[in-house]
């Protein structure tokens, strides 16, 4: 198959959304999991949002003048993040995914690190990323449910404010070794970020606890993370929270299950380039 990679155009958005919807739906349902993207409209809106964002590199794969796949590279911060990668189900395993991945790797090759999260049940994508040089860094599980709990009297849970970005960046550097301020500031306005304030110091934050894919969170300790999640849950009514949890954080995993949260799917965090083991409690987004 002759494959040509080029930049995405506005007229490509709808077909890219359709391909992404079909690809993720087929893969999930084949393995008896819930699709990541709930509707075609959602997938088209996602493609439009990525294409319109100047901090996201958006590309497509063509064959015989027909779009057969797309990929994205988020460039918010020093770490670059890949995805979602989607290939037309009719032409999968014919090289388009590899070419789209090689294109984003080439663009990001001089960055500190390139990272991604893949669905662990998708062995084809796991094999593709590993063959291109990505290393498995963390087993993850997506959790969803309603969390309730008492908050220590010295901790306040509230929505993030503009004045909080500097403290959040410092906390992220201590835990991750890098900051994610660009990503945090790009949280869509229809989602709310929250912080835990411990004696006038931000001890935890979460970027989008009501939408797992865009949510990342960091905390000084597991107790701070639990207080943050419980506080957000207390303010959420019947609206569930959802996030990706590194399963090696076993005590936090058990606490979440005891709260009634359900495991939805397994995932894998992978990285190419520099990677520092987080020094604290954290939850990755679908980017990393």
From TrEMBL:
Any keyword Acyltransferase? yes
Molecular function terms from GO: acyltransferase activity, transferring groups other than amino-acyl groups
Cite the N-acetyltransferase domain residue spans from the record. Answer: 3-158
Enumerate the UniProt keywords alphabetically. Acyltransferase, Transferase
Q: Which Gene3D superfamilies match?
A: 3.40.630.30
InterPro entries noted in UniProt: Acyl_CoA_acyltransferase, Bact_Acetyltransf, GNAT_dom
Specify the protein name.
N-acetyltransferase domain-containing protein
């Amino acid at each position: 198959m002759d494959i040509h990679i080029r930049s995405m155009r506005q007229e490509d958005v709808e077909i890219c959304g359709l391909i992404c919807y079909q690809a993720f739906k087929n893969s999930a349902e084949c393995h008896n999991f819930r699709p990541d993207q709930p509707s075609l409209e959602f997938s088209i809106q996602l493609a439009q949002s990525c294409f319109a964002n100047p901090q996201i590199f958006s590309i497509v794969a063509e064959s015989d003048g027909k779009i057969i796949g797309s990929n994205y590279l988020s460039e918010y911060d020093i770490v670059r993040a890949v995805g979602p990668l989607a290939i037309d189900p009719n032409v999968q395993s014919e090289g388009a995914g590899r070419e789209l991945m090689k294109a984003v790797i080439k663009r990001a090759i001089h960055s500190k690190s390139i990272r991604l999260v893949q669905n662990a049940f998708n062995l084809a994508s796991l094999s593709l990323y590993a063959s291109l040089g990505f290393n498995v860094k963390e087993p993850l599980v997506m959790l969803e449910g309603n969390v309730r709990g008492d908050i220590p009297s010295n901790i306040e849970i509230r929505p993030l404010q503009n004045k909080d970005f500097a403290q959040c960046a410092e906390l992220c550097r201590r835990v991750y070794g890098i900051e994610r301020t660009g990503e945090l500031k790009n949280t869509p306005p229809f989602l709310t970020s929250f912080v835990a304030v411990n004696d006038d110091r931000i001890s935890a934050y979460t970027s989008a606890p009501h939408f797992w894919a865009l949510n990342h969170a960091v905390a000084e300790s597991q107790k701070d993370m639990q207080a943050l999640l419980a506080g957000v849950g207390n303010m959420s009514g019947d609206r569930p929270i959802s996030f990706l949890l590194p399963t090696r954080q076993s005590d936090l995993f058990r606490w979440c299950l005891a709260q009634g949260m359900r495991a939805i799917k397994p995932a894998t965090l992978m990285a190419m380039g520099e990677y520092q083991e987080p020094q604290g409690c954290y939850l990755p987004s679908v980017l990393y």
